[in-house]
Design a protein that fits this description.
Layout (H helix, E strand, L loop, with lengths): L1 H45 L2 H11 L4 H29 L4 H11 L1 H7 L2 H7 L2 H22 L8 H24 L13 H32 L2 H38 L1 H37 L7 H8 L3 H15 L5 H50 L12 H20 L5 H23 L1 H13 L1
Length: 466
């Protein structure tokens, strides 16, 4: 799963870089603006059903056929209703024809998401299927975007290509799943069970809406208050931030079914497992956050070009949200959800989302995309505080002690970065930043091996043994 997701993540990243360059900041901003609205439609289509389904399948694999058939049927029905309603609303909103077409085609992606089977494979712990699905979708979309998206006027082709290949890959993966893992049996569809499943999943669905507020309410508000170019500038930085957040999401997705099973069978063992997870996560997250802060000029210049120079400031602000995000999502997704505390999960992410919305309203009109980035950091922190408090009802899982060694590693690695950077004074900034990065990596690697050698070796042996 790690290999497949790294590959698909890199392909998606280069696709975004290519789209941003050929479309320009304004057209790229429009594409991202439409995608921001799509994400809310996808949440309605899912309504927490995928997370609920993953948890139920992880606890009892024998129920995978019945659970998957019913959830897919329900999500398809929701997708049809959501798409029809959104098209009706679009027809009433005063938009340019090209923009209305862009939104309509973008909204077709709800059908791809309704048929996406990643959650089933996560529950079954068959992560190779998830990796293959993502890799196929990313690769096919990227190739055809390279072939057919060449200028700003081609912006509508981006969601069209994504829809065509997303739906194709989803159907192929479904065919393989029903042929190799379990059969497709319409007799397993029990419409009478849908309301109960839907109501159980609703807190997770509403929570997903709140989580999405973290991700793109700032994009929507920037699109309304500011210009499309500013949206493009901010999203260039956000896409870089999303790479690191996406790696952590992959880490969470892999661990979720394991924690669900362990918490169902042995809660003490689950606590030990999560302590290791938190320790390793912070050991990686803190130094990476510091390094990206220093390297933002190099990252933006290499991948997005001089037109996105202002994205450097946005990235330097946004990247600090990675640490509270890692902590809060660990408590939320790996303690509250496996424990069945869906309502507490809802309150936790809701508190962060309301904080995010309020701060966006206050900060964006005055500070534009910098205000949006600051709102994201503070909101993640608020969600983390609530999640930490609620998770103590299940078991006590700390994190402060696990910040000491990553903080020490980051401090000395930063000193090495500045020493290397200064030694190349008078050279091109790219050479200075490259030297600083190499020094940072070298010192961080040495210190991590020295301070956490036994833990890292034990962890690797455990993974290899399994």
């Amino acid at each position: 799963m790690l290999a497949g997701n790294i590959a698909s993540g890199l392909i998606n990243f280069f696709a975004i870089v290519y789209i941003a360059r050929v479309l320009g900041a304004a057209a790229f901003g429009l594409v991202q603006f439409a995608q921001a609205f799509l994400l809310y439609l996808v949440i309605v289509v899912d309504s927490g059903l995928s997370t609920y389904g993953t948890r139920e399948i992880a606890q009892d694999h024998s129920r995978a056929q019945a659970i998957s058939v019913n959830i897919f049927s329900l999500r398809l029905l929701l997708a049809l209703a959501v798409f029809c309603l959104s098209v009706m609303i679009l027809s009433l909103v005063p938009l340019a024809p090209a923009v209305r077409l862009l939104f309509t085609i973008t909204f077709l992606l709800v059908f791809y998401r309704a048929l996406n089977a990643d959650w089933v494979f996560q529950g079954l712990e068959r992560m190779e299927y998830v990796a293959v699905s993502k890799l196929l979708f990313s690769a096919l979309s990227f190739v055809f975007i390279l072939l057919f998206v060449r200028q700003p006027a081609d912006l509508v082709k981006v969601p069209l290509i994504q829809f065509i290949f997303g739906l194709t890959v989803a159907l192929v993966i479904l065919f393989v799943m029903f042929r190799r893992l379990f059969s497709f049996d319409l007799r397993r569809v029990h419409v009478a069970s849908w309301p109960k499943a839907f109501m159980l999943a609703v807190p997770l669905g509403v929570s997903t809406v709140f989580l999405q507020i973290y991700d793109n309410l700032d994009t929507i508000m920037l699109g309304i208050i500011d210009t499309a170019a500013v949206v493009g500038i901010y999203n260039a930085a956000y896409r870089m931030f999303y790479i690191f957040a996406g790696i952590f999401s992959l880490w969470l997705a892999t661990v979720l079914p394991v924690v669900c099973k362990r918490m169902h069978e042995d809660i003490a063992g689950a606590k030990v497992f999560l302590e290791k997870f938190m320790r390793l996560t912070l050991l990686l997250t803190v130094p990476i956050t510091v390094l990206v802060f220093f390297s933002a000029p190099l990252i933006i210049k290499i991948f997005f070009g001089s037109e996105y120079g202002r994205s450097i400031i946005a990235l330097r602000c946004l990247i600090w949200a990675l640490i509270p995000l890692a902590v809060s999502n660990t408590y939320n997704c790996l303690v509250l959800i496996p424990a069945g505390s869906f309502n507490l999960f809802l309150v936790s992410v809701g508190a962060g989302a309301l904080t995010n919305a309020a701060l966006n309203l206050i900060l964006i009109p005055k500070y534009s995309f910098v205000g949006a980035a600051v709102a994201t950091i503070i909101a993640q922190g608020v969600a983390g505080i609530f999640a930490f408090y609620f998770s103590q009802r299940t078991f006590r899982l700390g994190f402060v002690a696990y910040l000491i060694k990553p903080g020490t590693i980051s401090l000395f690695s930063s000193l090495a970065f500045f020493a290397a950077y200064s030694s190349f004074a008078g050279q091109h900034q790219v050479a200075q930043l490259l030297a600083g990065n190499i020094a940072f990596f070298a010192v961080a690697g040495i210190l991590a091996a020295y301070l956490e050698h036994d833990f890292i070796v034990a962890f690797i042996r455990e993974i290899v043994r399994k």
